[in-house]
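Pipeline run #58 for the internal structure catalog. This entry was flagged by the ingest filter as a single-chain record with no existing model, so it goes straight to prediction. Upstream metadata was stripped on purpose; only the residue string is passed forward. Reviewer on rotation: M.T. Logging verbosity set to normal.
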Amino acid sequence: MNKKVSTIILSCILLLISVILLIVFLVIPNNVSDAVKPLTIYSQDYNIIVGDKIENFYDVSKNDAVISFEVEDKNIIKIEGTNLIAENPGHTKIIIKASNVDEYTQTTIEINVYLPDYSLKINPVFNCNYLGNNLYCHGEICQFQIEIFDKNNNVMPDVNLKVECEKGYLYQEFLNWTLIINEPCKMVIYVLDINYQFNLNVII
Protein backbone atom coordinates (compact mmCIF):
# COMPACT_ATOMS: atom_id res chain seq x y z
CA MET A 1 0.00 0.00 0.00
CA ASN A 2 1.53 3.28 -1.05
CA LYS A 3 1.65 6.39 1.06
CA LYS A 4 -1.10 8.19 -0.91
CA VAL A 5 -3.62 5.38 -0.37
CA SER A 6 -2.77 5.20 3.33
CA THR A 7 -3.38 8.93 3.67
CA ILE A 8 -6.80 8.65 2.00
CA ILE A 9 -7.82 5.74 4.24
CA LEU A 10 -6.68 7.61 7.34
CA SER A 11 -8.63 10.69 6.29
CA CYS A 12 -11.79 8.63 5.78
CA ILE A 13 -11.39 7.03 9.21
CA LEU A 14 -10.94 10.44 10.85
CA LEU A 15 -13.98 11.79 9.02
CA LEU A 16 -16.08 8.80 10.16
CA ILE A 17 -14.96 9.31 13.76
CA SER A 18 -15.85 13.01 13.56
CA VAL A 19 -19.35 12.22 12.26
CA ILE A 20 -19.93 9.66 15.04
CA LEU A 21 -18.75 12.10 17.69
CA LEU A 22 -21.02 14.81 16.28
CA ILE A 23 -24.04 12.49 16.39
CA VAL A 24 -23.22 11.50 19.96
CA PHE A 25 -22.85 15.16 20.96
CA LEU A 26 -26.11 16.28 19.36
CA VAL A 27 -28.43 13.37 20.08
CA ILE A 28 -27.41 11.52 23.21
CA PRO A 29 -27.02 14.50 25.59
CA ASN A 30 -30.44 15.83 24.58
CA ASN A 31 -32.09 12.50 25.26
CA VAL A 32 -30.32 12.15 28.60
CA SER A 33 -31.17 15.74 29.53
CA ASP A 34 -34.84 15.27 28.69
CA ALA A 35 -34.94 12.02 30.66
CA VAL A 36 -33.48 13.53 33.84
CA LYS A 37 -35.28 16.88 33.57
CA PRO A 38 -38.06 17.01 36.20
CA LEU A 39 -41.67 17.72 35.35
CA THR A 40 -42.33 21.31 36.41
CA ILE A 41 -45.01 23.97 35.94
CA TYR A 42 -44.29 27.67 35.66
CA SER A 43 -46.99 30.27 36.22
CA GLN A 44 -47.59 33.34 38.36
CA ASP A 45 -50.27 35.32 40.19
CA TYR A 46 -52.31 37.73 38.06
CA ASN A 47 -54.16 40.98 38.66
CA ILE A 48 -56.48 41.53 35.69
CA ILE A 49 -59.55 43.49 34.64
CA VAL A 50 -62.93 42.00 33.81
CA GLY A 51 -62.95 41.06 30.12
CA ASP A 52 -59.18 40.69 29.82
CA LYS A 53 -57.54 37.53 28.46
CA ILE A 54 -54.11 36.22 29.48
CA GLU A 55 -52.65 34.01 26.77
CA ASN A 56 -50.36 31.08 27.69
CA PHE A 57 -50.78 31.74 31.41
CA TYR A 58 -48.72 28.66 32.32
CA ASP A 59 -45.83 26.62 30.92
CA VAL A 60 -44.89 22.97 31.44
CA SER A 61 -41.38 21.53 31.10
CA LYS A 62 -42.42 18.35 29.27
CA ASN A 63 -44.63 18.01 26.21
CA ASP A 64 -46.06 14.62 27.20
CA ALA A 65 -47.67 15.98 30.37
CA VAL A 66 -51.45 15.87 30.81
CA ILE A 67 -52.76 19.15 32.24
CA SER A 68 -55.83 19.68 34.44
CA PHE A 69 -57.13 22.55 36.55
CA GLU A 70 -58.95 22.97 39.83
CA VAL A 71 -60.61 26.41 40.05
CA GLU A 72 -61.79 27.65 43.43
CA ASP A 73 -64.48 30.00 42.03
CA LYS A 74 -65.51 29.29 38.43
CA ASN A 75 -67.70 32.40 38.27
CA ILE A 76 -64.66 34.67 38.33
CA ILE A 77 -62.46 33.20 35.61
CA LYS A 78 -62.74 30.85 32.65
CA ILE A 79 -59.97 28.69 31.19
CA GLU A 80 -59.90 27.97 27.45
CA GLY A 81 -56.88 25.89 26.48
CA THR A 82 -53.86 27.88 27.67
CA ASN A 83 -55.83 31.13 27.96
CA LEU A 84 -57.22 32.66 31.13
CA ILE A 85 -60.31 34.90 30.76
CA ALA A 86 -61.55 37.24 33.51
CA GLU A 87 -65.35 37.18 33.70
CA ASN A 88 -66.39 38.71 37.04
CA PRO A 89 -64.66 40.71 39.79
CA GLY A 90 -63.31 38.83 42.79
CA HIS A 91 -60.48 36.63 44.05
CA THR A 92 -59.89 32.97 43.29
CA LYS A 93 -57.18 30.31 43.24
CA ILE A 94 -56.25 27.90 40.46
CA ILE A 95 -54.41 24.63 41.04
CA ILE A 96 -52.58 23.65 37.85
CA LYS A 97 -51.84 19.91 37.74
CA ALA A 98 -49.45 18.11 35.38
CA SER A 99 -48.73 14.39 35.11
CA ASN A 100 -47.22 11.79 32.82
CA VAL A 101 -46.49 8.07 33.20
CA ASP A 102 -43.81 8.58 35.86
CA GLU A 103 -44.35 12.00 37.42
CA TYR A 104 -46.90 14.33 38.96
CA THR A 105 -46.63 17.95 40.02
CA GLN A 106 -48.90 20.87 40.76
CA THR A 107 -48.73 24.56 41.53
CA THR A 108 -51.24 27.07 42.88
CA ILE A 109 -51.72 30.60 41.58
CA GLU A 110 -53.96 33.41 42.81
CA ILE A 111 -56.09 35.57 40.55
CA ASN A 112 -57.51 38.99 41.42
CA VAL A 113 -60.09 40.32 38.96
CA TYR A 114 -61.10 43.97 39.12
CA LEU A 115 -63.74 46.09 37.47
CA PRO A 116 -62.35 48.52 34.90
CA ASP A 117 -62.26 52.24 35.69
CA TYR A 118 -65.17 52.64 33.27
CA SER A 119 -67.74 50.28 31.81
CA LEU A 120 -70.21 50.33 28.96
CA LYS A 121 -73.88 49.40 28.69
CA ILE A 122 -75.77 49.19 25.40
CA ASN A 123 -79.54 49.51 25.80
CA PRO A 124 -81.38 48.05 22.78
CA VAL A 125 -84.14 50.24 21.34
CA PHE A 126 -84.96 48.49 18.08
CA ASN A 127 -83.93 45.27 16.33
CA CYS A 128 -80.79 44.43 18.34
CA ASN A 129 -79.40 43.04 21.58
CA TYR A 130 -76.08 43.34 23.39
CA LEU A 131 -74.24 40.40 24.95
CA GLY A 132 -70.66 40.22 26.13
CA ASN A 133 -68.74 42.49 23.81
CA ASN A 134 -71.06 41.91 20.84
CA LEU A 135 -73.85 44.03 19.41
CA TYR A 136 -76.23 41.73 17.53
CA CYS A 137 -78.26 43.44 14.78
CA HIS A 138 -81.32 41.44 13.69
CA GLY A 139 -81.59 43.18 10.34
CA GLU A 140 -79.95 45.97 8.38
CA ILE A 141 -81.24 48.71 10.71
CA CYS A 142 -81.02 48.78 14.49
CA GLN A 143 -81.21 51.40 17.25
CA PHE A 144 -79.64 51.54 20.68
CA GLN A 145 -78.65 53.87 23.51
CA ILE A 146 -75.23 54.09 25.18
CA GLU A 147 -74.52 54.50 28.89
CA ILE A 148 -71.10 54.90 30.51
CA PHE A 149 -70.46 53.91 34.14
CA ASP A 150 -67.59 54.78 36.47
CA LYS A 151 -65.76 52.21 38.58
CA ASN A 152 -68.36 52.61 41.34
CA ASN A 153 -71.05 51.60 38.82
CA ASN A 154 -72.57 55.08 38.71
CA VAL A 155 -73.95 56.38 35.40
CA MET A 156 -71.88 59.23 33.99
CA PRO A 157 -74.42 61.78 32.69
CA ASP A 158 -73.96 64.02 29.65
CA VAL A 159 -70.75 62.43 28.39
CA ASN A 160 -69.49 63.41 24.96
CA LEU A 161 -69.39 60.38 22.69
CA LYS A 162 -67.91 59.77 19.30
CA VAL A 163 -68.95 56.47 17.74
CA GLU A 164 -67.33 55.00 14.63
CA CYS A 165 -68.22 51.91 12.66
CA GLU A 166 -65.78 50.73 10.00
CA LYS A 167 -68.64 49.67 7.71
CA GLY A 168 -72.18 50.95 7.37
CA TYR A 169 -73.81 54.24 8.34
CA LEU A 170 -74.25 55.50 11.90
CA TYR A 171 -76.02 58.59 13.22
CA GLN A 172 -77.47 59.96 16.47
CA GLU A 173 -80.92 61.42 17.25
CA PHE A 174 -81.22 62.62 20.83
CA LEU A 175 -80.30 59.55 22.95
CA ASN A 176 -80.77 57.01 20.16
CA TRP A 177 -78.02 55.79 17.86
CA THR A 178 -79.13 54.29 14.54
CA LEU A 179 -76.92 51.86 12.68
CA ILE A 180 -77.52 50.83 9.06
CA ILE A 181 -75.34 47.89 8.10
CA ASN A 182 -75.33 44.73 5.98
CA GLU A 183 -72.15 42.96 7.12
CA PRO A 184 -70.24 42.37 10.39
CA CYS A 185 -67.80 45.04 11.50
CA LYS A 186 -65.95 46.64 14.40
CA MET A 187 -67.37 49.58 16.33
CA VAL A 188 -65.38 51.97 18.51
CA ILE A 189 -67.04 54.17 21.13
CA TYR A 190 -64.86 57.10 22.20
CA VAL A 191 -65.70 58.83 25.50
CA LEU A 192 -64.12 62.21 24.80
CA ASP A 193 -64.46 63.62 28.33
CA ILE A 194 -62.17 60.99 29.84
CA ASN A 195 -60.09 59.98 26.81
CA TYR A 196 -61.37 56.40 26.96
CA GLN A 197 -62.64 54.00 24.32
CA PHE A 198 -64.60 50.76 24.01
CA ASN A 199 -64.21 48.30 21.15
CA LEU A 200 -67.22 46.23 20.10
CA ASN A 201 -68.04 43.59 17.53
CA VAL A 202 -71.14 44.22 15.42
CA ILE A 203 -72.72 40.95 14.29
CA ILE A 204 -75.52 40.71 11.76
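catalog note: Helices lie at 3-36.
catalog note: The chain has one helix and 18 strands.
status: ready for reviewer M.T.
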